[in-house]
Amino acid sequence: MFKRVVRQSKFRHVFGQAVKNDQCYDDIRVSRVTWDSAFCAVNPKFVAIIVEASGGGAFMVLPLHKTGRIDKAYPTVCGHTGPVLDIDWCPHNDQVIASGSEDCTVMVWQIPENGLVTSMPEPVVVLEGHSKRVGIVTWHPTARNVLLSAGCDNVIIIWNVGTGEAIITLEDMHPDIIFSVCWNRNGSLICTACKDKKVRVIDPRKEDIVAEKDKAHEGARPIRAIFLSDGKVFTTGFSRMSERQLALWDPDNMEEPVSVHEMDTSNGVLLPFYDPDTNVVYLCGKGDSSIRYFEITDEAPFVHYLNTFTTKEPQRGMGYMPKRGLDVNKCEIARFYKLHERKCEPIIMTVPRKATVLEESVSKIESVVHFLFFMFVSLCF
User: With contact defined as beta carbons under 8 Å apart, do 201 and 246 qualify?
Assistant: First the structure.
């Protein structure tokens, strides 16, 4: 019996590629607000980016095909009286987007089918219930018109957007600022990461904490937590020595992590993006110039490093395209929208086909043969 040296994986050779300059979105003044959200939300029709705005908060909504230089007078969604902190597209309607702001409100907007023609100051619905700024908004993955918001008042509110009413209010569960909230795949549970260094799994219908872990990461910097498709929880945070960490947890036994990995000593918060179809987690650090990706499997060490995509410019934020917006005919498995200081740059993640690799090799050999033949003919004459 031969021992397998290299772990078999379909995604071992995934590689990233930035698009050409003419396919980027240029001259966008990305928000400078100090909040650890992605600042960008994408769906198969639009890309939304939180931008600098005088006298309030605004974000820009661009049709995906509108690449190139964006005019300074391009219309924005500008109904908030304070800076916008987070935005999220509705998974059931590609023209509906929610935004949370420092003005303590959540607003829901209906974007015209062909994009904005004039600036949009009036939302469809205003959701008021938080007493401090709203830093997180996220739609329910399976139920229409259900939206979750979390504020710096340490309260989570689940809204019925159709009626504008709060369905569930989760108070007294978090003693400090909530860093992240994530629904599980069917929307029956949420997991949260809080400044008190606890990761909690909550059943919002019963208003009950199902599982929690104290000091999931011992560092003082923000923690992020997301659900995986099998119900496990994936977290990113910092160690006591300020090293960036990632960890995998089983909610049925939160005493010890299933797996922990130390990464580096950079101080940027790691934003995790999860693809449930391929079981790959992409980590984008704020202020980093790289995207690291890992595959989650059932065999030890459970979290397997795949590769790193690196560019020269640091990222201010990151948007992640849902799988239904990808070009699968070109073997695309993920697409990111990287925010620079004044630009948004799409990055395409691809799994190379064996046939494609073979074709490229044959093409290169043909080019070399043609070149040698030309040189031979030149020398003969």
Answer: no
Token representation of residue 190 = 């949420």
Asked if 42 and 89 touch (Cβ cutoff 8 Å), the reply is yes
Three-state secondary structure readout of the chain? CCCCCCCCCCCCCCEEEECCHHHCEECCCECCCCCCCCCEEECCCEEEEEECCCCCEEEEEEECCCCEECCCCCCCEEEECCCEEEEEECCCCCCEEEEEECCCEEEEEECCCCCCCCCECCCCEEEECCCCCEEEEEECCCCCCEEEEEECCCCEEEEECCCCEEEEEECCCCCCCEEEEEECCCCCCEEEEECCCCEEEEECCCCEEEEEECCCCCCCCCCEEEECCCCCEEEEEECCCCCEEEEEEECCECCCCCEEEECCCCCCCEEEEEECCCCEEEEEECCCCEEEEEEECCCCCCEEEEEEEECCCCCCEEEECCHHHCCHHHCEEEEEEEECCCEEEEEEEECCCHHHHHHHHHHHHHHHHHHHHHHHHHHHC
Map tokens 């031969």 to a residue.
2
**Does the pLDDT at position 316 exceed 60?**
yes
pTM: 0.89
pLDDT at residue 323, rounded to an integer: 94
pLDDT at position 238: 95
Is the backbone of residue 374 left (phi > 0), alpha (psi -120 to 50) or beta?
A: alpha
How confident is the model at residue 358, as a pLDDT?
45
Q: Record the tokens describing residue 139, joined without a space.
A: 């739609």
Indicate the Cα dihedral angle 196, 134, 33, 86, nearest 10°: 110
Q: In what order do the strands lie in the sheet with 165-170?
A: 134-139, 146-151, 156-160, 165-170
**How far is residue 360's CA from residue 346's CA, in Å, rounded to a whole number?**
24
- Classify strands 68-69 and 25-26 as parallel, antiparallel or unpaired: parallel
What does the block give as tokens for 30?
A: 């990305």
Mean pLDDT confidence for 226-252: 95
In angstroms, rounded to a whole number, what is the distance separating the alpha carbons of residues 362 and 196? 58
Q: Is the dihedral of CA 7, 259, 180, 202 positive or negative?
A: positive
Give CA–CA dist 196/220, Å, rounded: 9
Closest CA to 233 of 190, 196, 292, 297: 190
Tell me the C-alpha distance between 295 and 48, whole Å. 28
